[in-house]
Amino acid sequence: MEQFHLNINQFLNTDIDLLEVNNWEKLQKIKNGFVNYNNNYYMIADGILKQATLIDNSAEFHVVVQTLYEYSVVLVAEHDEIKGYLSLNEMLPQLVHHYQTLLSYFTIITKTSEASVTVINDKREVILWTEGAERIFSLPHEKIQGDDITNHFEKDKLAVTEALYRGQALQQSHHLPRDDVFVLINTSPVYVNGKIVGAVASETDITSQVKLNRELMQASERIHRLEQNLQTLQPSDDPFREIKGQSAPLEHTKRMIEKLRHTEVSVLILGESGVGKELFAKAIHETRETKESPFVAINCGAIPNALFESELFGYERGAFSGADQKGKNGKFELARNGTLFLDEIAEMPLDMQVKLLRVLQDKKYFAVGGSKEIQANFRVIAATNRDLDQFVEEGLFREDLYYRLNVVNLTIPPLRERKEDIVQLVHHFLYELSVRYHKPIPELSPQFMNALLKHNWKGNVRELRNALERLVVFSNDGEAFIEDLPFLAKQVPMNNNESNVQPSTLQASMDKHERQLLTEALKHSGSNKQRCAADLGISRATLYNKLQKHNLE
């Protein structure tokens, strides 16, 4: 935008000769030109003497204009060297042209922009109402242009007047200028010489996105209820059936969860991204709740700030624009007599942290737009991969809420600290993914498995599963190619001896590993075949076939 700014140099006339004159007689003989007479500057045109003054070219443009009120001509210097002069007669046509240029750009910009742009002056009169504003508010500019904006909108719903009166700017803020319109708004006051002379609002219509988001939330809730119904048709008494592995850190975590069986304390689950914190939350839920108790999960990092309160508290019919006419139960109500799992709790806005804390303390709340007090009856499990102690110290997370949630905390060990679980996880995922993609289960060589064991797995179980999914997708008749995982390929030694390994030797190694895995799984399940099959992620029929193959019946 620099080309639109006024500066001295763009109006400077450099056609100048400066004469040094030291007596009045010589000055009278000069017909045209600039003269320095006893350190006073003059312009002589056709014998007419006009006094001039000297300013530096770094001066602000408004200072130059004020100076030209007093002097007909202004000489401009740079580092004490005179570069040219300015005069009102020569500047005026250029200023008019500059104004016309700015007006043309401004007109085209406002017509080209699809966003709603509103400009008001210090009397609240609308001086600009773009076509985007006409579309969003169904209000033609002929009806509002030049009129007080408060004649067309409720005063308490106008963010642009807040910018005008208080100098309060907004950035990417959700706003309801009307009951049927939801926008993302930016506002800013307009200053001239330090004084507010107007305000600007730019709005993007997100009504359809908000409605789609609510429909998606409702669909997610229906899917979740269907998943819960499906689980009731496939009952299991083992709350850890989805958690694969038998490493010491994992067994320690399971024992801690078992101790929560007859409690209602809040639990904070800590762990890196991808360790499966939700699986452990479900295990806690199933350990201490009945089969009919709901488990309601909400990702605090995936909800827009403007929707947070209605998602948690629910709302009554007509509570706000776009609200379901029947109202909606919030997560608090859906989790009644069950568990509310708050994933990514560190991403919850501070104002919502206050409201959540009040619900946890008082055990009651009001729905948005409601007047009836509702009793809160749910257990809370929160999870995060952030350092909440650091967040509290930096003022990003409320200390009182932290202590309320952190009655019991569980730290889920990362995969690199329980690498002995990788083998079982690999077999589980390969079976699950092969069934999904209708492909034979790929066989992995000892070198391949060794590379899997050596890898650091910064993304933890999620990264491992994603890698195995890629293997299954690109596998060919049960053969997996390590080249499909470039980050692992460099860990596998490629030498001449490897190419001479006989298939029977590889098969023997795999059979030996499979027999060991079956033996450990049987021991862990107490020889319970149903639980053993569930731990391995295979059917009971497949388990019996493998037990028979290895003479383990």
Automatic annotation (TrEMBL):
It comes from the Bacteria. Keywords: ATP-binding, Nucleotide-binding, Transcription, Transcription regulation. Transmembrane segments: none annotated. SMART domains: AAA (SM00382). The keyword ATP-binding applies. One of its GO terms (molecular function) is sequence-specific DNA binding. SUPFAM superfamilies: Homeodomain-like, P-loop containing nucleoside triphosphate hydrolases, PYP-like sensor domain (PAS domain). GO terms for biological process: regulation of DNA-templated transcription. Residues 243-473 form the Sigma-54 factor interaction domain. It holds the Pfam family Sigma54_activat. PANTHER family: C4-DICARBOXYLATE TRANSPORT TRANSCRIPTIONAL REGULATORY PROTEIN DCTD, TRANSCRIPTIONAL REGULATORY PROTEIN. This is Sigma 54-interacting transcriptional regulator.
